[in-house]
Queue: 3 jobs
Job 1
Amino acid sequence: MAQYRLGKRISFSSAEESRFRNLFNSWAASVPEFKRNKLGDQLKIVEVWDAPLYQAVFRTQYDTRLLREGSERAKGRKFPAPTITKESDINRWSLVPYSSSFTSTEGSLTVKGSERIVNCHTCGAQGEMTCTTCGGKGKSERKVDTKVECSICYGKGYKTNPSKEIVSKNVWNYNTQKYETKYETVTHENRSECYHCKGKGYIDSFKWVVDTCQKCGGRGKLVCSTCAGDKQLMKYWELRRTQYNKSMSACYFPPEVSQDEVQKLMKLFDNTTPWSLVERVRIEREEFAKAALAERPVVGPMLSFLQSRVEHPQNTAICFSEVEVCECQSLSVIYEVDGERFVCLLVGPQWKLFTVTSPVSKKMDSLKEKVNTYCRQRKYGKAWAYLQRVNKFPQAGSNEAYMQEQLEERMAGTTRLSSNLVLMLCVVLAAPVLYLFYSNTEFYAVWTKWLMNKWDITPTAFTVMSIVIMLVGGMVANKSLPAFSYRAASGVSRSVRGAMVGIGTFVMMGLLAFILTYLGVTTVLYKLFMIALSIVMFFVIIIVGLFK
Amino acid sequence: MAQTNRLKRTLLLVGALLVIIAVHTLSSSMFADMKDNNAAQAEQAELYEESSVATAEPSTTEESTPTNKESFSAQLPTAYKAYSIKGFKEAWQVMTVVAEDIYQQELAEGDTDDEFELSNYIIKAIDSSDERMTNSVQLALLLPLLLAVMVVIAIFVSIKSGLAAIRPLDFDNDASVFNN
């Protein structure tokens, strides 16, 4: 059996102690928010343990086997009498050997001795079945478009309404050598388009035509789709097989490291962590008892835990399992700072420092607690200020970044409110100036003046539209505020910055409104607004009138 | 990023405005030159009365410009009085009188025989070219309404902002707690 080491207490040599303290000083100096750069020199080493770390990977190969009955065309084949007629005759686990290596495949195979010829169940060994289109009659009706002569105009496309007119004309009489007036009756047809057929002379219609069935050619029968005319089928048992593998892993840490910290430390290990293989155990099928994993010293409980988590799905057998245990050299140092004890790990021969608990993490935890407290009190500015300090610690991660995002969004609310209120105030103060400017100036584009005259647009309309553009545009622009305006802990500071942003937004929107008015866009918008208002008022009046 | 975008947008608008001012000034001066040339030609070709009118026109144009400037700067200080209730009441009085005059005129012309209702004649009075409906009167009618609308919007925005602020923070379904 492989050698597993329990932790044993050791002492640092002076060189090792010096190395450790320098390492700790470097680490403490790298944390910006932590002011004790010489923490390594200030701490008191209480205990040092040679405490190796162990990691186990438990990998299991599975084989799922299902039986099903299949059938296919006989194609004139002959088989001897089947030795397997029902599912209970088949031992699916002995048909094919288990895989001896890790693999992931899917497939199926026919169970030998189960093939047999039977009569086709679809056509009853006739080889033919009734045609589904004509129902066996051999004939089918189909719709044909026709034209029927219009019964009103009899195919002419028009109706006549004859009228007579008596026409006079002068005719030369050779006998009397004079012009004589002769009267004739002329009949006018007066055609008018037939209202029934719209002048076409026919009406579109359809008729049913009985025809030979296209599908069966009049036979009323089709070749059986199941046996393709063979009248017989080959039936057999089929084994469907799926092979796959699953892994689980666990770590053993020295008892000084609490379970809460183990998960955090696991995330910090990467490809550079110097794991070395201690043991590889192969367990055939489910012979776990034979492997006696739980009896191993130090890692026994860990391996036992992994073994208990091995799955046993339905219709699935375990082919084999492989357990790999690796060791990583590590020293566990218990030290004291200001009367409080902390733990750190020095992993590998290079002594990579993992501060499991430290005054730094304690400081960070206290800052986090303050953030939580202020968040509960809805003092977002103060919570944000403390969160800035938390984010300076190297341990800060995506969770802290998300929290900062949420807090800043809340803080931006103050800035946005202040900005919008100042914007409205500026609009109120600038309204008279705007009105007087539009009343007294001729500063419009040529086409704008033409539109003003054509649609009778007054300075009041320009003022109102400019105010609307400034307000709406300003509030939309204030949805995305510059970062400097809301990244301040104090609410007063955020309000003042918001006011500055509001003034800036007002200037920007004012320029925009002025340019749009010059170009005539405001004129067009005003006209569209009045048309929309008229339509709405029209419907309102109708609805009110209906209810009265 | 938002700050840089805002700055860029403002500079773009300022640039566009300068271009418009330049184009407008240029086109106005060109148009004015063309007008002067035409006037000079008319003065040479036509009789005494037409040339005197043509020479009179530029002088009236020059005289009108200082008047416009004076009226603007003179109106500006008094324009803010339009926000007062007194200014609004006075303007309303003027508008009512103009509306009544319009009604009397319509009655005389036979365009209406209904009784006088102020609500039917407000828009007509404001839109009329009556001398009494000066800029200050129109301002005094418009601005208090604007102020009232702003107050309503401000209240609505404040309430909305307040409600958003008191909503609890949601950090991954675990309000305001660090997940260790």
Job 2
Amino acid sequence: MSERFINPAIAAVPPSAIRKFFDTASTLKDAISLGVGEPDFVTPFPMRNAAIDSLLDGETQYTTNYGIMPLREEISRYLMERFHVGYDPRNEILVTVGASEAIDIALRAILSPGDEVLIPEPCYISYQACTRFTGGVPVQVHTLAENAFELDAGDLEACVTKRSKVLILSYPSNPTGAVLPREKLEAVARVAIKHNLFVICDEIYSELTYDGFTQASMASLPGMWERTMTISGFSKAFAMTGFRLGYLCAPKPYVSAAAKIHQYTIMCASRQSQVAAWYALKRGRETGYEDISRMRESYNQRRRLMLKAFGDMGLECFEPKGAFYMFPSIMKTGLSSDAFCDRLLQEKAVICVPGSAFGDSGEGHIRCCYATGTDKLQEAFERIAAFLGTI
Amino acid sequence: MNGVKQQILEILSNDCRTPLEQIATMTGLGLVEVAQCIDELEKDQIILRYRPIINWDKAERQRVEAMIEVKVTPQRDFGFDAVAKRIYRFSEVKSLYLMSGNYDLLILVEAPTLKELAQFVSERLSPLETVTGTATSFVLKRYKQDGVVFEDSGEDTRLAVSP
């Protein structure tokens, strides 16, 4: 009976492939998870306290659809200072429920049924699904481990058709940890301009880059601001995942369109989360972003640890310069990424996410998150090494 | 002090048993370089000792702890240092701080029994001629020490798998 009622466009989208691992993992007691997608730091206390103060002050009402003005002003300053992109807090910034909502409403604001969306893969799991929810057509652009999963402008251009409308770009990347060097970003920008593409740029991991690499923002490149939506949030850099707070920035007409959906469906992000986020940026500005630096350094130490461990195990892995993931190849085991993760969980109680969950280009790899205590990481490495010995 | 040494201190202060090789990997330094840095930190008396944080309540060892606020008369030419030195030489004194505020020195003392601790205060500390007053407060329970919560389950509250 449900077939008659459920929207076929929704029914056609498969549930997230990571779900089944979650179900098995929750039944195992001594499992070590490298499958998380969030920081292992608790939100720094001053931000939590700002939210508490807001509650104690009785700030329990709706905010404006766009988000409280002090937060938008801080976002505007922050993006200019850190990423050299300028947005007017009055009408070019929309505060959303996480970057996830921003991705959804960005696509809904831009796409018409049949429009093609160029999606470099492996990529975050929601890009394809959200595209399909709108009736858009996802087009895979493969990126390769041997190119450090950097998007090649030539490969992108080869996928462009008359129906291509949007490119979704996300560097540093979840799941690979890859970054996109400036010259490659510029080459991608030239393709976008040449073929009149709109770029939705998910920059949620922008603050988490290592060993001196800085990820340039697409909207900061000449000729790109007017055709780019910059999406980011507080989850990763500020360890605020549970606050669910993100933002979307673009020229006024695009923000107005996205705001229309936000206005009718969400109304506004949680006021307490907005206050905590405002305080995160204000405090960051005043302290030289010391919380971010501290957490980044800690991730970097563990990144080096994991890279060496995989090297010692003989698992091929390029050195990722961003986010908090590694994406080693497990091809030499002869197992599919799904089978590898399944067996690793059943036999050694270590949770990793199969690369295939992030698109076809992810097959033959597994995503491992190093945002976990070093003692647990070391134990996980021992278990993975032992597992490899049994294959 | 350079950033590398700060990083090493950070790692050791979190777990002083972290193997040299692991520290080298985490900091991106060579093994020799890490060993040299630690050696310097020890020589410069920045690292003084490597000690575990112990929950003595679970170790079933009888001990009584107290914080003693002490008022003293500073000595000419030596200020508080000479008095402090006189006090920290007592083996019962585990920590000693010079404080701002209503009293001068804060002492953390430890003794096997209440009686011995009382004797320390009445027979050894108070009679010192520079000591003009003491206020002793007994430690009833330790919740957190040096950043470590004693009864923390350490449970990771994150979802085991998330996108």
Job 3
Amino acid sequence: MKVTKDLVAASATPMVLGILADGESYGYAILKRINELSAGELDWTEGLLYPLLHRLERLGHVESSWQTVPGERRRKYYRITTSGLAELAEQRRQWDTVVNALREIWVGPGDVRRSAIPLADPA
Amino acid sequence: MTAADSHDGLEAQFAQWRQYVQRRPELQRSDTEELEDHLRGSVDELVAAGLRADEAFLVAVKRLGGLDDLSREFAREHSDRLWKQLVLTGGADDPATDNRSRRDLLAMITCAAGAAVSIKVPELFGMTLEQDAAFYGPNFALFALPWLAAFLAWRRQARPALIGVLVALFALGAVAANVYPLADDSQSLVLTSIHLPIALWFVVGLAYVADDLRSSRRRMDFIRFTGECFVYFVLIALGGGVLIAFTIGTFEAIGIESEGFVSQWLVPCGVVAAVVVAGWLVEAKQSVVENIAPVLTRLFTPLFTAALLAFLVALTWTSTGINVEREALILFDLLLVVVLGLLLYSISARDPLVPPGLFDTLQLALVVSALVIDVLVLREITERITEYGTTPNKAAALGENVILLANLAWSAWLMLGFVRRRAPFAALERWQTGYLPVYAGWAWIVVLVFPPLFNYL
């Protein structure tokens, strides 16, 4: 099972902000972290990640700095800002609403099997 | 294969990849660096997993996905990058270019300031713009063009010999403008005021091509430079008009008269400085912004062709003949200049290797109809001159007409050969660039020889 493109795009911002909330990081590490967290189910590309990071930087949610890492390589690190933290909180509130509503629908109180959608993948 | 070999090979592959990626306008240097770091991270991990360096590189690049998709995603966030922005100073990716453009800017400001100051210098000797029009008229170009030539010569690091020639020619221009005893209302004074700027513009051209005077390509570059310079100058002039309107209006609102300042300082200093600024803009934006003159040419060639053909049809229909006054001759001179301009600027933007198309035929029609009209006019004019004798004005206008006619007639012949696929397009280009000295020569003749020839009339 692969998550659809639309859903990946919609969840991209809170995911990146959430990872950066744990501490500054750089593109490759963020991508790896997302892969780990989703066990490879989220199909993230570089074409999604880097423009997103640049957009968040333009909006002021993250800030970046070039640092030299061992091995004489320059690497662009991203750090979340206060406005980014506020945005993360807001996104989180919205996602909680969505997730709670879905949970209510799929597993209603007292009626676990009301949903016609199979919860487990038959494959 | 040793580890060092494999390391060098990998670096070479990275360098190649970098070059490839940097060609994308959507991806800037910093993006390339960021993506390269990503790629290296990916390669390191694959090598650690047991792949050989070159294999790891291939896999990592493959994982990065198609460059087209990647740049499309980048373009969505950075759509401004697809609009070619003219970065004048700072913000450029490359520190070397940045440094150079900053030095250019400084040189331009120096030259523009020099021009603005120089036009006020004659006031120290009691000259004023209002009363000494007979001095400022022919001399005006001498306050602007030498500064532009100086900027260009500095930028191209011209040889001392060339600088000597430039100085000598500008001095000659100053002599021509001031030595002859011309009355304030003489025709020759007006002629000099019109032709000296043209003659001096070709001196600027000398500074522009600097390194390679005989090269047809460089001369074509100068033609492009002239067109763009003109377009920029007009744009600056429009902006200047707005500035003047606001200056006068706002100061009037608080009861201060600013007309004197505007006409004595803002306009004269602004105009001469704008010439230098326009030249600098063209140099700075050369490869950044699309040339505008050829775009205008494309737009107006069909319209002018239609207008000229309609005029010819109307002329034969009514059979009244052309009413040839002195103004009419100048009007038809200007018409030939416009047609020549349309021809020149479409040549300047054309790929010489593209086979002839509809537009070339259209252009041939434009040139031929202009020629037919001009021959009709010329016939009338020569009759007039043989009847009433000649004046400097008539001689100059007639000379120009003949020069333009000769150019367009041969151009039409070459274009016909090109449209019929008998001659290469380059022949037309060479003809036009080779003809440039003729215009310069004629302008100098009018300025230097005409006044004594016509007894300072």
